[in-house]
Amino acid sequence: MSRDSTSRRDFLKATGAATAAATSTAGCASFGGGGGDGGGTLIYSRGDHPTNYDPQQTTSGEVAKVTNQVFDTTIDFKPGSGGKLVDGLAKEWELDGKTTTLTLKEGITFHGGDELTAEDVRATVRRFIDTEYEFFLGEKRSGYSSVTFGDWVESVEATSKYEVTFTLKQRYAPFVRNLAMFAAAILSKSQIEEMGQGAEAQAELGTDPRGTGPFQFEELDNSNEKIRFSAYDDYWGEGPHVSQLIMKTIKSNQTRAQDLINGDSHITDNLGAQAIKQIKDSDGASVKKKNGINVGYMAFNQSRKAAFRKPKVRRAISYAVDTEAIVNSIYQGFAKQADQALPPDVLGHNEDLDPYPHDPEKAQTLLEEAGETDLEFELATFSNPRGYNPSPVATANQIRSNLEDIGLSVSVNQFSSFGPYIDYTYAGKHDAALLGWYTDNADPDNFLYVLLHPGVPVEEVPDGQSYVSWDKKGNASNISSWANREYMKLVNEGQTTYDQQKREEVYLQAAKMTHEQAPWVFLDYAQLTRGINQAVQADSYTVSSVGGPYLELVEMN
Questions:
Q1: In the chain, what is the greatest distance between 2 CA atoms, to the nearest angstrom?
Q2: Euclidean distance between CA atoms 525 and 510, whole angstroms
Q3: How far, in Å, CA of 517 to CA of 175, rounded?
Q4: Beta bridge partner(s), residue 85
Q5: Which member of 52, 79, 326, 458 lies 3.0 to 4.6 Å from 550 by CB, making a disulfide possible if both were Cys?
Q6: Which residues are CB-neighbours of 521 under 8 A, at least 6 positions away?
Q7: Are 111 and 229 in contact (CB under 8 A)?
Q8: pLDDT tops 60 at residue 65
Q9: 377 and 432 in contact (C-beta within 8 Å)?
């Protein structure tokens, strides 16, 4: 079957003409059904359409929106809580030194009908990190393999039918939180084995994912950029309260907002300022906001561009870029200027720091002192809206204009799709690049290690050197290739410290170092904004800064 239309069963035959009407006819009434379990169709619109939905093959939040509907994690985040842990597939867990034990709930089934056991958890982890496992995902696995399990797990064992024991290589404070990350979603051992050996065979799992989650994956329609789901009747948790879910892609912010207002979709995200205004001014939809746990930034690739290895150059560019104008004029106030890598509402965010002011004269002075007044470089950017950067092309052009004002030459390399853009930046082909990060687990390590630690031992970084070469870097998400020995020591200490007060003291220092050393231009901390059509019971949808979206809780009017 063509990968443009991958389905496990004939979705349209199963759901009937009502679904077709729901996707083609404007107006709220076209979706059928009111609230209550099994009532109606929920349509969620977004700005991009990946084509593979394996949680172990991606770093994309767009993929996570889908996999979080199909799969569950052993531990979860309470919706809207900002990171409070609650039980998921596991009813109990304990972290003691270098041992983590999980006790699974009984009677939970995968969409294929098999009961969840400890062997499924073990097979999931081994597929991601164990090179000796015959179903190892290999070169197809994402960079999350190292920051979720790989660098920390010595072994994982099914110590009984419903008990899993992880033995860690070291004390690792964030480990329990890592188990709630989307990349730690539990796969079916039966499906893993069904896919067959080899990375290419295993890679196909993402076109027909089968988990224990509230919605079953029915059809991946790549030609129309839609995904169709049905409610899983045997779901172990609360909900779902709709019988069908559709995720569709509309790349234009304004078009997506109008689609919501018209009633052709029910919830949408990653909205720009104009789209937010459209929705606010309408009678048929409203906007929900929440402080996000995220950061938007421009990374300097020190491995590729020698000039970026000089702190004065990085600080000069930070002074030159008018982040206040970006936040106020382009994002129009739904974000605030960033001043460090760690966002507010996360342990260790340093309140004593301020954003770099727009100071072109100081920027030129620093460039002169660094001997880099004729600097030229490429700035890579994506085009589709992201929550931390809803207008990436406008942002890139603002940066280019600011830097041209101080005599630098910047060419913007614009990508039309986010997937190829991630491939480009994670391969280190950029000089500088716009990116951002939503928290995976609301832990400071998820920012300060994942994004700015090179993932190598401190002693492997020569004294006095501020970077590692791309091929030596062990941490894929550090696209600046920054490697500061003192910073690395602090982050390593934070990982092995279980006392929260001591961890906070360590991360306050590390956050201050990110400000002073400026491995990025710190752009913004964005609010989360969601558009909600009046067909949705407003109180049933919770905007969450970590995890989700929790669409199984949504009810229709």
A1: 70
A2: 18
A3: 28
A4: 77
A5: 79
A6: 297, 298, 300, 317, 318, 321, 323, 356, 399
A7: no
A8: yes
A9: yes
What would the pLDDT profile of 112-167 be if each residue is shown by its tens digit?
A: 899 999 999 999 999 999 999 999 999 999 989 988 998 899 999 999 999 999 99
- Between CA 367 and CA 387 the distance in angstroms is 32
- Enter the tokens of residue 25: 């006819």
In angstroms, the CA 335 to CA 352 distance is 19
Q: Two tokens at 160?
A: 């009984």
Quote the pTM value.
0.84
Q: How far is CA 296 from the centre of its chain?
A: 12
On whether the CB atoms of residues 430 and 301 are closer than 8 A, the answer is: yes
Strand 215-221, strand 226-231: pairing: antiparallel
Q: Amino acid identity, residue 145?
A: S
CB count within 10 Å of CB 496 equals: 12
Structure-token match 């035959």, residue found: 13
The pLDDT tens digits for 320-332 are 999 999 999 999 8
Work out the burial of residue 376: count CB atoms within 10 Å of its CB; fewer than 13 is exposed, 13-18 middle, 19 or more buried: exposed
* 156, β-bridge pairs: 166
357 prior amide bond cis, ω within 30: no
Residue among 266, 226, 229 nearest 250 (CA): 226
CA distance linking residue 25 with residue 20, whole number of Å? 9
**Cβ-proximal residues to 96 (8 Å cutoff; 6+ apart), any chain:** none
Give the Cα separation of 402 and 295 in Å (integer).
21
